[in-house]
Amino acid sequence: xxxxxxxxxxxxxxxxxxxxxxxxxxxxxxxxxxxxxxxxxxxxxxxxxxxxxxxxxxxxxxxxxxxxxxxxxxxxxxxxxxxxxxxxxxxxxxxxxxxxxxxxxxxxxxxxxxxxxxxxxxxxxxxxxxxxxxxxxxxxxxxxxxxxxxxxxxxxxxxxxxxxxxxxxxxxxxxxxxxxxxxxxxxxxxxxxxxxxxxxxxxxxxxxxxxxxxxxxxxxxxxxxxxxxxxxxxxxxxxxxxxxxxxxxxxxxxxxxxxxxxxxxxxxxxxxxxxxxxxxxxxxxxxxxxxxxxxxxxxxxxxxxxxxxxxxxxxxxxxxxxxxxxxxxxxxxxxxxxxxx
Length: 341
Ligand code: UD1
Fold this sequence. Notes:
Strand 2, helix 2 (40-48) and strand 3 (53-56) form a beta-alpha-beta unit.
């Protein structure tokens, strides 16, 4: 069965491609390599022994998307990762974000609308909840006014899919609302490859640990949490990748109850920034150089998932602990920096 994975050379995309290949799906990757590298294909081959089909296409080119679906008219499912994801950059370049994240989604759904049936998985984010009133966050928590154009593209994206499914019952879709992905494949063949200075906590920590950055700035220790630093739900990227496979299988086997569904994908546990640093120090045996600085604009205080819907309905649950995920992130960092020397 042929599955299109857009953004399949990216961080979460590449780990999902591995899981799909290991479940014997045929995978076609579309990626424009704007934030990824074709070398990732070698990592995927090293792990799975298989080479997915790769098409270097920019999904903002509507005609190229149509041409792709003419060539591969036997695609039965689409997992759509391709998108821009830097919150700060989205504030500076809103139109780029709306174009990258929404035009591409529309062009894909237009193609699926003319098929007899199609399954679609969308990369959404816990950012749609903003600062939720209650923890853990269930899927019924209200979607709050987005804090950034990036967050808005996820909210609007979900609405576009919901509206499309209402009038195209042959399209079945699931949005997965990711909490904070981290880590790398245990083989260290694939992992996160942030370009430039990492914006996210874990790659910043591992790059500081390896000596690429001088120190980590911890954004605020005066929040109303036990140690004063913000709390998030950090999920191992391999667990997250597996959630895509079970979500896709639900749709392909027509087990979905509605043709548009939403699931949280997290661990259900919250960890503070200082706890994440503690985990790094435990698994690496190194002291991390960090300093407390002022709060970062737009940060929510606490966000962690209620994962019972995914557990009950998808039969999926995250397996890895924070330390296991951190160990994989650290092993990956050590490997890529050794290779770079
Ligand atoms: C946010 C969104 C997430 C989105 C992601 C995109 C929420 C709850 N989460 O993640 O859905 O996909 O942006 O990038 O809205 N921190 C530091 N120092 C650093 C970096 C981070 O102290 O150098 C802290 C932050 O203040 C935060 C935590 O680490 O408390 C995690 O930050 P980050 O990795 O950037 O992810 P979120 O902002 O939670």
